[in-house]
Write a structure and sequence with these properties.
Residues 174-262 form the N-acetyltransferase domain. GO terms for molecular function: acyltransferase activity, transferring groups other than amino-acyl groups. By secondary structure, the protein is of the alpha+beta class. Helices cover 38% and strands 18% of the residues. It is globular. The mean pLDDT is 94.
Amino acid sequence: MGGCCTGGPVPVDLPSIPQDIIQLSETTSPKIVNDLLEVMVKSFTGTTKVPGEPMLSWAFDPDGNVDGDPCNPLKEEPSAERLATMRFVIKYCYYHLLKHGCCFALMKNGSPVGGVFMCPPNSKGAHEESNCYFMWAMMNLGMTSSMSSGDSAMRFDAMDKACKAAHKKCLDGKNDPHWFVNVVGMDSEYQGQGYGRELFNFILSCGDHTSHKMYLDTFGPRNQRFYEKNGFEVKDVSKVNSKKLELTVHGGGALGMLRAAKK
């Protein structure tokens, strides 16, 4: 799955996987996979009570969040188009990284409550999607009109370019192997129960186990504070500018954040 020229999997060296975390593969129960993807979609979409992923919220609708700030909850409950767009994003990331063996679900009472999709350290630039994979995803993963046409498509493109620019400025994937923490999501219904900490402790253990740097991109002061508490530092801020609109709140940039390798 994933197109004709996406390249093969890269070797991965993992720490001991905790009992409540499962490593996903093409043989994983479809129900578990679908349930996890929906948890991630819910996390990235947000609600009128809980914010979603800020840059994606801005790209979909700059005026859709309280006070025009994408770090705030939505003004209205998510539309079918917003959910479908976030579903495409989550599936796009999942199927791109699945073959590398670094997609994981945190399970509680037999159901996923959160997950992470990562790319392991490599010298192939495996975190970068091929044009072939992009075309496959467009045809098979339900790309929405919000991402393919109009002003919103230009904003999504601007966001993508900013995130990739931050990544390249912080690291050269082919000459500086590192863990790329691409997607992390938790079901907001389980906030305050320590599940997010449990999942993130495992994420950090992957970097510690192989003694590699870890990279992620994010946006907004709340996310920045969380990752800084976990040892990440802002190494680059890449502005998000589209032809129609510029992201201006909170500095208006994708934050490239790096966690140093454990010696």
